[in-house]
DNA sequence: GATGAATGAGCATTCATTCAT
DNA sequence: AATGAATGAATGCTCATTCAT
């Protein structure tokens, strides 16, 4: 691949990251191309469909999250590792509309293409989860799929609220609610 | 109103309920009309804009939920009333993509028209919440806006999962996580 | 024809007169029906197409103008009769958008259907004109068609101006310009 | 700008000129595109709204007329310059339905966007007019707005007549009537 | 390879006309 | 005969995708 081609690919990915983060999957591709400073044709040379671009962006983000989960897998305190990762993931993903869209499953086609990467993240998170459950920090009746769904839901909730001035919502409190709900309850 | 008009209005509302429930606000009006077995002009006669139709559908659903919340307001046990309503709301609203869209605030314009009804629901829910908080059943650091957002998020999560066969998620467990997170924690 | 049918026909014509006068041929028929207090179906019972209704309205107006021209045909002073009629016609027709549309020939189909009545008016006006020309009051190089066109143009001009606050125009002056232009010029 | 783009822009403008000239602002954009041999999207690329296209066409025509008026402003004989311009304008604009629409003020929105250019023309014409009035060639009781309205009306009249074979009208005579009406009358 | 112009299917909405009630 | 609901073709505009330059 020529140097300028590689550079354009980078520019496009960066622009797409920003655009998708701000507006979700709804952004016109022309705007992505404009942000990247290239023509839409160039975009299509690198990414044959809009979904391919979207997937590329989300793929990268999912892998970053998966990597982070992997790092946390060896931490001394399984419970702290798990809840630390949850907090990290919420913090990182909340402002990325595309992740919210992707994790929430907007459009069934996305799922198939992203399934592998999403599965990878789910596996890593599942490992963290299982370890935390074995250590007694997290409720035992929870599958990795449930957890991913709950995270996706929280992200969605945070997205919606950031636009609605009439109903103020507190990211800290909402995350705390989720974490408390995930925690094992001593009395039970 | 003439019999055929009422019938078609019913058909349209029903078709719109189904279509919006399945696909959210994104469904083409022509498809709603097609599902109802009428022409697009007929749809227009009954609902002058797409938003009017969407609002009619969501309005009804929001009012049902608000009514249910009002009923619960006088129950003997404030905590049980609150958690019972949360479970009811999740059960009812989960398969309705439109409610998820509306509660999640997809598109600022919707909000203005539905704000009144959504606000009504929030108020009723807020009353249940406050009472449950005073009774010590629900954590005190939670606003009505937070709660609505969390519910909206959970609904979104459930919607997304219902389409994703690869990542099974359990509505019961997820609702339990939310409810446990909402509950006051004795030890704190 | 039943009494109520005749009455509805009257109501419709009256409503159409008003609506067409105010908005020209562009008014939706539903609005005409609404103004008349009847259903659109009733409108169609009496007038099989929109154009038929339009023609009925314009027909009546043209006949009134023709009658007025006929009255003026015997006046003592041919010049005064002619210019008096011109002023009358401008005064009457200026606020009737439909007449402006019809005389201006908006839509070729109209012309065919209204041709007979418009021709009748043209004939009467032509008689006034010829008499005034013979008396030396009006320039001789003017045909009845020219005159009708000029009148239609003046009406159009007055219509446009009444909407444009940036370019004030004076109906009196404009009519005077036309009349002076029509008058025979002594020096020639 | 690329060669093909410029070519298509030219084709579109030309097609729009013809279509607007023949049918006024009422032509469907799809027909303009069809005439130009391009898709509707291409039209949109060059002219983002229908009004933008209309304005582009009319703008050009108005500017040509304004330029012509400016040229005439320094002529030796103010009266001849004025009447010459009137004749020129009638000749040029008569077959252009769009100019008639624009000058006649069809639709208030047009006015805002074209107001500047139309105002420019009115100013230039007003200059010619004032000079001719000072020289005693043109009646003093006439504003620039009146003149523009009269011109617009004459154009409208000529348009209408060109479609009506039953009522022959003579452009020369009609223009002469207007000009004579505009001229100062010695005897008054 | 890059560019950006062209494409055309698709959408919400309007309104003259028809037809069941 | 009246009613007003239903029809559906048409319009301006958008945007993912293709293709000439």
What's the SSE blueprint?
Four copies of one chain form a homotetramer.
Chain A: H1 3-23, H2 29-36, H3 40-46, H4 50-72, H5 78-93, H6 97-104, H7 108-134, H8 144-163, H9 171-182
Chain B binds a DNA duplex (21 and 21 nucleotides) through residues 2-5, 8, 28-30, 38-42, 44-46, 48-50.
Keywords:
homotetramer; 188 residues; mainly alpha; Arc Repressor Mutant, subunit A; Tetracycline Repressor, domain 2; 2 domains; 9 helices; DNA-binding
Fold and architecture overview:
The structure is a homotetramer of 188-residue chains. Chain A has 188 residues and is an all-alpha fold. The first copy, chain A, folds into two domains: 1-48, Arc Repressor Mutant, subunit A (Orthogonal Bundle), CATH 1.10.10.60; 56-182, Tetracycline Repressor, domain 2 (Orthogonal Bundle), CATH 1.10.357. Helices cover 76% and strands 0% of the residues of chain A. Chains A and B meet through helix 7, helix 8 and helix 9 of A and helix 7, helix 8 and helix 9 of B. Chain B binds a DNA duplex (21 and 21 nucleotides) through residues 2-5, 8, 28-30, 38-42, 44-46, 48-50.
The DSSP helix count of chain A reads 9
The CATH level-2 architecture of the largest domain in chain A is identified as: Orthogonal Bundle
CATH superfamily of the largest domain in chain A: Tetracycline Repressor, domain 2
CATH class of the largest domain in chain A: Mainly Alpha
């Amino acid at each position: 691949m020529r140097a300028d081609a590689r550079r354009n690919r980078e520019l496009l990915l960066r622009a797409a990251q920003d655009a998708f983060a701000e507006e979700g999957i709804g952004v016109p591709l022309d705007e992505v191309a404009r942000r990247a400073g290239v023509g839409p044709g160039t975009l299509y040379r690198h990414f044959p469909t809009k979904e391919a671009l979207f997937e590329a962006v989300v793929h990268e983000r999912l892998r970053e999250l998966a990597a982070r989960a992997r790092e946390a897998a060896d931490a001394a305190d399984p419970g702290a590792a798990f809840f630390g990762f949850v907090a990290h993931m919420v913090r990182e993903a909340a402002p990325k509309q595309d992740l919210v869209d992707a994790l929430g499953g907007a459009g069934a086609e996305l799922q198939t293409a992203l399934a592998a990467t999403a599965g990878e993240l789910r596996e890593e998170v599942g490992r963290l989860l299982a370890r935390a459950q074995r250590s007694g920090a997290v409720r035992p009746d929870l599958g990795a799929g449930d957890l991913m769904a709950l995270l996706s839901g929280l992200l969605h909730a945070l997205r919606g609220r950031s636009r609605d001035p009439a109903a103020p919502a507190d990211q800290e409190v909402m995350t705390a609610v989720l974490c408390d709900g995930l925690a094992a309850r001593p009395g039970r």
